From TrEMBL:
InterPro entries: Homeodomain-like_sf (IPR009057), HTH-type_TetR-like_transc_reg (IPR050109), HTH_TetR (IPR001647)
Name this polypeptide is given: HTH tetR-type domain-containing protein
Positions of the HTH tetR-type domain: 1-59
Gene3D superfamilies with a match to the protein in the record: Homeodomain-like, Tetracycline Repressor, domain 2
Signal sequence residues: none
Keyword DNA-binding attributed: yes
Regions recorded as binding DNA: 22-41
GO MF: DNA-binding transcription factor activity; transcription cis-regulatory region binding
Keywords tagged on the record: DNA-binding
Pfam families, alphabetized: TetR_N
Length: 199
């Protein structure tokens, strides 16, 4: 029942936002009385923190899985796989993605601190992971260049994430491929610099 309540909370949030996703609507979707929710969650805030925790953790695990499955590949291929992983994860769970977009664009005071902690944790993991991978393949690269590459990747990845809400079908696939081309061009530039440094 707890999991059903979390799923109903995310569904109602994606339809109505935090304030519109009432305990009554959530209870009705699950088929119980509103008062029964309080056997599982102390209040609405606790229910939604649990729901968003599940949503964000699923995103984190998806990215960790993509990285783990490709960590032995060339770094430019890893970046490409992670970009496609972002697209695949979010298009595969549109209800969760709509809720995620709503959460990011209009943080709720009660949930805001949790979201900030999650984003800090995720960004630190991403930066640490990508720094290590880049330096393995490009040992002469400067820290400033690594930082620049990662920031460009994050910018491109964010564009793909927001594009999910703007494009559909083949149009979205085209956007992902164009984003991937931008990322590959970053590494073409690094290859040239690396060869010049070695020679």
């Amino acid at each position: 029942m707890r999991q059903k309540l979390i799923e109903a909370a995310l569904h109602q949030y994606s339809l109505h936002g935090y304030h519109g996703a009432t305990m009554r609507k959530i209870a009705d979707e699950v088929g119980i009385k509103p008062a029964s929710i309080y056997f599982f969650f102390e209040n609405k805030e606790e229910l939604f923190i649990a729901a968003f925790e599940q949503l964000l953790q699923a995103h984190f695990q998806a990215m960790q899985t993509v990285l783990a499955e490709n960590e032995d590949h060339p770094v430019e291929e890893i970046f490409s796989k992670m970009l496609h992983g972002i697209a695949s994860h979010h298009t595969g769970d549109m209800q969760g993605t709509i809720a995620f977009i709503s959460l990011v664009t209009s943080p709720i005071p009660e949930i805001d601190s949790y979201l900030k902690k999650y984003m800090l944790k995720f960004n630190n993991w991403l930066i640490d992971s990508l720094q290590t991978l880049i330096k393995q393949d490009y040992p002469t690269i400067s820290d400033q260049e690594v930082d620049r590459i990662i920031k460009q990747y994050v910018l491109i990845g964010n564009g793909v994430f927001w594009g999910i809400n703007l494009y559909e079908g083949e149009s979205f696939k085209e956007q992902v491929e164009l984003a991937d081309s931008l990322i590959q061009s970053l590494f073409i530039g690094l290859d040239k610099k690396e060869k010049e440094t070695i020679s």
